[in-house]
Design brief:
Chains A, B: Its EC number is 1.2.1.11. Chains A, B: InterPro entries: Asp-semialdehyde_DH_CS, Asp_semialdehyde_DH, Asp_semialdehyde_DH_beta, NAD(P)-bd_dom_sf, Semialdehyde_DH_NAD-bd, Semialdhyde_DH_dimer_dom. Chains A, B: It is an enzyme of class 1 (oxidoreductase). The structure is a homodimer. Chain A has 9 helices and 14 strands. By secondary structure, chain A is α/β, with parallel strands linked by helices. In chain A, the strands form 3 sheets. Chain A has a 6-stranded parallel beta sheet with strand order 5-2-1-6-7-8, with helices on both faces. At the A-B interface, strand 9, helix 5, strand 10, strand 11 and strand 13 of A face strand 9, helix 5, strand 10, strand 11 and strand 13 of B.
Chain lengths: ~350, ~350
């Protein structure tokens, strides 16, 4: 601490980039110089940070001269080409894309779970996928106390995870349907895929492209990233990822089987009440449970609907909700930057 | 067959009642006399059936004189008081409420799964919960071939399951949010519960009221009804039920563990392709999978996203979608009536 840093934000005009700037401002992160970068297309955009106006510049290798921390969120191909250039110039890259997540020399970090992995970095630190982050933050306190064998998750994901234009499509399509006008889906479920489907008043069981094994890339991200972050290569993990007509806030129905079978619902609630970054919202008598509409703009992971499985003594069901642009992206990235400072790694 | 029946529809002005009339018309169900009944409040409403106008009458015990089949869908308390009166007068009641489902003398029937249970009826036949019906129709062909140990389901349920006024609330609330007007939720998640929440652009993890064990009544319905319909009191079943901003079409992310561990994805696909009442929609290369927007107005249960669990050889994941007002309610009820005719039970 005590030293103002030169921070670069790559993808400053995007949905996550905007949240990164807001989070840096909210956290009063000590910045001496701020460089805002984007693709050529968005360069020239004016952005306000702490009452000061900045002009977003096109990201090129030379943009990273003198930068201490570069927060990347401009797509995998931008990270692939420019993150190494930033590292070459002395920056630590915190990358919000999937480009380096499964690289064995790149730590994949959720500070509440594996902050210590930051010590082994080689210049790039990967920020996990949004849906992975909130799940591991919720189950890590339980794993620590009771061990963990198996995870089965079904997600309820918001469109903003696919960027600003996806959110725009949701609203314009919703409006068209309410007005009985024809719709022409062009973004959802995956902009770069062959077919596009109605997202308004619908559920699309595809996030990211399909892999050869029938799982989508989003599902494989949740499976592989969870094992890596928790250092449990043998952990059983399965995921079904679904896109819904919600702007922001991912929800997850999570089933876990623990090593031990003596945990009670009250034990789990107590653990989550004390867990960092987690807010327990669980009181059926008062109809208290997490919902996406309530989590927007908040940094925590919200957990509720905690139930013991009726058949297996080591089984529990949870409902996990978080702002996918904050803990799922911008806040986790800034939190990694804060951890780097705390550990004197920057 | 060959004999025109006197059919009564109780709850004829409701969301399901309307679908029952449409289904009876679509199926060209042989009706000699049609009696349309409702609460006192809705009595007097005019309803058209096969180009003929009917006036809906208040349901009273005497309404059932001479009725052969009475389709009930007017809430549990109406069924509780009037179904026995109908039976007393010689009618067979097909009840779409939860009033008699778990009664041990009442068969609970999904014709594709347990049509033979109709032989043991005592005047009342219960139609299962919407979310249960589509799930058991999808997994029964798999169970028959490979046995079944465990089911874990997370649902993505449409608002029309809560009636016409819930659908109205979704649309008026959505409109208000798009116009930046304040909203006042008054129906969702459960009209008769204490608190009401925004359903537009949100996900509410509560359907029906909470039970003492922390599960909702909807979740317990799925658990208990599945065991009863499949005649498997020891089957492991767990459910998490979630309401979403979708008018019609329930989706379900279903994980199953089979007795045998030698089934392949191709085997499961072949079984479902041949299964009655099921349409297989599963081709990742063509982004083909079931979605609620595509299932509306169709009678089948649509299954896709079939994947083998990556850790357990007997584990499979499915995505199951159906029109909750048709196979989930009206069509299954009419289908029971058709089965009764076919089996010469009416």
């Amino acid at each position: 601490m005590g030293r103002g840093l030169h921070v670069a934000v790559v993808g400053a005009t995007g949905a996550v980039g905007q949240q990164m700037l807001e989070t840096l401002e909210d956290r009063n992160f000590e910045i001496e110089t701020l460089t805002l970068l984007s693709s050529k297309r968005s360069a020239g955009t004016k952005v306000t940070f702490k009452d000061e106006e900045y002009t977003v510049q096109e990201a090129v290798p030379e943009s990273f001269e003198g930068v201490h921390i570069a927060l990347f969120s401009a797509g995998g191909s931008v990270s692939q080409s420019l993150a190494p250039e930033a590292v070459k110039r002395g920056a630590i890259v915190i990358d919000n894309t999937s480009a380096f997540r499964m690289d064995e020399n790149t730590p994949l970090v959720v500070p509440e779970v594996n902050e210590a992995d930051l010590h082994q970095h080689n210049g790039i630190i990967a920020n996990p996928n949004c849906s992975t982050i909130q799940m591991v933050a919720a189950i890590e306190p339980i794993r620590k106390a009771y061990g963990l064998k198996k995870v089965i998750v079904s997600t309820y994901q918001a469109v903003s995870g696919a960027g600003n234009e996806a959110a725009k499509e949701l609203y314009s399509q919703t409006k068209a349907i309410l007005n009985n006008e024809p719709i022409e889906p062009s973004i959802m479920p995956v902009k770069g895929d062959k077919k596009h489907y109605q997202i308004a008043f619908n559920a699309i069981p595809q996030i990211d492209k399909f892999q050869d094994n029938g799982y989508t890339f989003e599902e494989m991200k949740m499976i592989n990233e969870t094992k890596k972050i928790m250092h449990m290569p043998k952990l059983e993990v399965a995921a079904t990822c679904v896109r819904l007509p919600i702007e922001t806030g991912h929800s997850e129905s999570v089933y876990i089987e623990l090593d031990r079978d003596d945990a009670t619902v009250e034990d789990i609630k107590q653990l989550l009440k004390e867990a960092p970054g987690v807010t327990l919202q669980d009181d059926p008598a008062e109809q208290l449970y997490p919902m996406p509409a309530d989590c927007v703009g908040k940094r925590d992971v919200f957990v509720g609907r905690i139930r013991k499985d009726l058949d297996r003594a080591n089984g529990f069901h949870l409902w996990v909700v978080s702002d996918n642009l904050l803990k799922g992206a911008a806040w986790n990235s800034v939190q990694i930057a804060e951890s780097l400072q705390k550990l004197n790694l920057v």
